[in-house]
Amino acid sequence: MQIKTITLSLLIYLGLITSPASQVKKLTDYDSLITLFEEWRQFEKPPLKEQAPDYTKETFEERWSSFQKLQERLVAFDTSGWSLDNKVDWMVIWAEMNGYDFNHNILKPWTRDPAFYKSLWTSRSDVPAHEGPTHHATTEIWTYSFPLNQSEKQRLMSDLAVIPALNKQAMDNLTGNAKDLWVAGIRDIKNQSDDLLDILNQEGVKDDMDLVTAINEAANSTNEFAQWLEKQASSKSGPSGIGKENYSWYLQNVHLVPLTWEDEVMLLKSELARAWSSLKLEEHNNRDLPELSAADSPEAYQKLAEKSAESLLSFLEKDEIVSVKEYFKPALDAHLGQFVPNETRNFFWITAHYDPRPLYSHFYHWFELARMDNEPHKSPIRKEALLYNIFDSRNEGMATAAEELFMQAGLYDDNPRVKEIVYILIAQRAARGLGSLYAHANEMTMEEAGGIHSEWTPRGWMKTEKELLLFEQHLYLRQPGYGTSYITGKYLVEDAMADYARLKEVEGEEFKIKDFLDKLNSIGNIPISLGHWQMTGNDNHMHPILD
Questions:
Q1: CB-CB contact of 268 with 486 (8 Å)
Q2: In 174-297, which ranges are continuous DSSP H helix?
């Protein structure tokens, strides 16, 4: 597979962005961009077919010319006199349209990826939207409070009605030959059936025959879909990765990550080596200190979790790391976790039972989502989640960067042994991302990529519970660039921080981490390359994207 050259390009670096051949009227006002954005987002939602979004080949082909007209209107804008933040908004739409183009021509999740048809989601994602390609009419059961009032019952009935229709459509649409995506996707669909039946246990549901019938119909349809997938699986033999060239194009033109496949391999190898060597040096430095001991009871874990959350929030405020808002504490408190028996702990909860602060630092995610809920961005383009997981370098990168930034700023001065956990986290994320790169290059199967993930995570902590390994490698094969975004996004955050600090030094001003993070937060959940540009006015880091 190789992506065609997309007509929408940065012909002149966000100055006169016009196409000589285009007959579209050139626009110069920002309000017209907002209008186009609203039309684009409305278009991006497919029409309905038998109550479900229509992902048939015929419908995509029919709508393609309408998409091209939207592209032409965007490329006709003259942004030369615009403010930097408005130019950034233009680029967000540019990236989203490139994402639609790429999905249409290359990724085609509705054709290649059975997990695309997963409909039921039991919890909110810790990033602005669900991770990986997701269809447009999901049932977000976590948004319901049981027992349901009449309007909420009707909303749920409407949601559930999509599932049988979409499953039926999926069995026509899924004509791809991506073996690993196909086989791994069966697990997602089977799990959906169990999750649907769990709704029957919610208060008031079993007494409502309308709901019971709708749930059973959705579950039966899901079972039929899973059985069909299993029958087809033996005929699938093709690769699931998109290839190096497509991967690099996607990174730069959709997720606005100014790197190539080769760049990411080198970066993740470097971070993996650094994490392992730093861990061993930290262990040596701490050799005379007591080993960390894991919480061994629900009471011990609860006490540790509450103490750790208080420690983190106090550190962020008293050490002037970031402006701590009133919604930080409830956002964190809702995700403190609970005691998990040793034999069933996955990687992240192993770390949390020793000291949850590294994981809670990564839960910077929940502060960002609370900010979206409580202080939505003034730009309608940045107010909601960006499409196609374009936010990954920003949200996953910042969450990962927070772990080490907070460590270096002194969070673990009270217990240096916890620094070891931070390096283990970095190693795990570098290893899993490296595996995903080889899988997308079709140099490894998903299982082989998981081997890197497992073998290169220190202390054998990825070998204890296999569900997490399967979930992560499957997600990263489904969503190019996501598996690496933790480390590459961290690098881009550090690059932005370095550039910001250098400019402060040149101007004779003091660098303050709180100012940096507050400004980055105010820019919103957009690719970190755009945040860097808006924060500093410097576009040097974006040349791989813009040239």
A1: no
A2: 179-198, 209-233, 244-253, 261-285
Q: Which amino acid does the sequence have at 256?
A: L
What six digits make up the tokens of 504? 């402060």
- Hey, what amino acid is at 370? A
Q: Which residues is 140 bridged to in the sheet?
A: 121
Average pLDDT over residues 426-434: 98
* Closest listed residue to residue 99, CA positions, set 407, 350, 316, 385: 385
| 393-to-309, 397, 435, 481, 491 alpha-carbon distances in Å | 25, 5, 18, 9, 9
For residues 202 and 56, give the distance between their C-alpha atoms in angstroms, rounded to a whole number. 35
Residue type (1 letter), 504: K
pLDDT tens digits for 173-218?
999 999 999 999 999 999 999 999 999 999 999 999 999 999 999 9
| Gap between the Cα atoms of 148 and 202, Å rounded | 10
What mean pLDDT is reported for the chain? 95
pLDDT tens digit string along 339-357? 999 999 999 999 999 999 9
pLDDT band (50, 70, 90) for residue 23: low
CA-wise closest residue to 78 among 63, 90, 70, 61: 90
In total, the chain counts a number of residues equal to 547
What six digits make up the tokens of 462? 């990825």
For residue 359, give Cα distances in angstroms to 305, 365, 405, 546.
11, 11, 13, 36
User: Residues with Cβ < 8 Å from 377, sequence gap 6 or more?
Assistant: 383, 524
Please report the beta strands in 47-170, taking only residues with DSSP state E, as ranges in sequence order: 48-49, 52-53, 120-121, 139-140
Rounded mean pLDDT of 278-294?
Answer: 97
Q: What percent of the chain has pLDDT over 70?
A: 96
Q: What is the pTM of this model?
A: 0.95
